[in-house]
Amino acid sequence: MLPIAQLVGPVPPPLPQQTADCDRPTYATDMLVCGDPTLRALDQRLLSRLTSGVPGATGASSSLIEAQEEWFKRSRRCAFERDQRDCVEAAYEERLAVLTAPSTSAIEAGTCRLGDKGHARLLVDGERLIIWRDGAVIAVAFRMRDEWHTFMTYQRTNTSVTIRDLKGRAMAHCRTARPSRAR
After folding, report:
1. Is 122 inside a domain boundary?
2. Is the four-CA dihedral 86, 96, 30, 165 of positive or negative sign?
3. Which of 43, 86, 113, 145 lies 20 to 30 angstroms, CA to CA, from 35?
4. Which whole-number Å values give the CA distances from 121 to 1, 8, 16, 88, in the listed order?
């Protein structure tokens, strides 16, 4: 008897996606998103943002912001997490926060050194820290979360902030003008 793979032939990879495909869900995470009203609403908000035509809406403005395709692939790995739903919800919340940064409530909090790429402004915007230069978002960082590993995280003291990538590498060092309100 032949193995099934030989009977049906090679299985092609899934088509590229940026959000869940509820018409033809390929990933376990898509099935979860499509069956959960809260996650589906987050997915629709993300799709709306991505197709809005707003500059920076896809997050491709900086190497310190994860490309949409990479975020999508990484978010689908939530299927392997203990609490898949919490992981997916946190992933969508992070992505929407990155793509809508900064809000009108953001306050200037200091300056950042970006290695050999010069300096930029540090903004505090609720729970996220934003590195901003020449009218563009350079990076958005969040506190470490248990259910989802954000693309950029921050560690802070009273007078400084270090922005780290997924691998824990320091990507920016910031000095705060006054103690940061982000907790």
Report:
1. yes
2. negative
3. 145
4. 66, 56, 35, 31
Question: Do 140 and 70 share a structural domain?
Answer: no
**Residue 177 host element (H or E):** none
The last residue of one of the domains, among 81, 99, 117, is: 99
pLDDT at 71 over 60: yes
Contact 128, 142 (CB under 8 A): yes
Q: Decide: residue 22, CB within 10 A, 0-12 exposed, 13-18 middle, 19+ buried.
A: middle
92 and 21 within one domain: yes
Alpha-carbon distance 47 to 21, whole Å?
11
Q: Which tens digits make up the pLDDT trace of 88-113?
A: 999 999 999 999 888 888 999 999 99
Which residue is listed with tokens 């009218």? 135
Examine the fold and report which residue of 79, 99, 119 is the final residue of a domain before the chain moves on: 99
Task: Indicate the pTM of the whole model.
Answer: 0.84
User: pLDDT digits over 115-125, tens only?
Assistant: 888 899 999 99
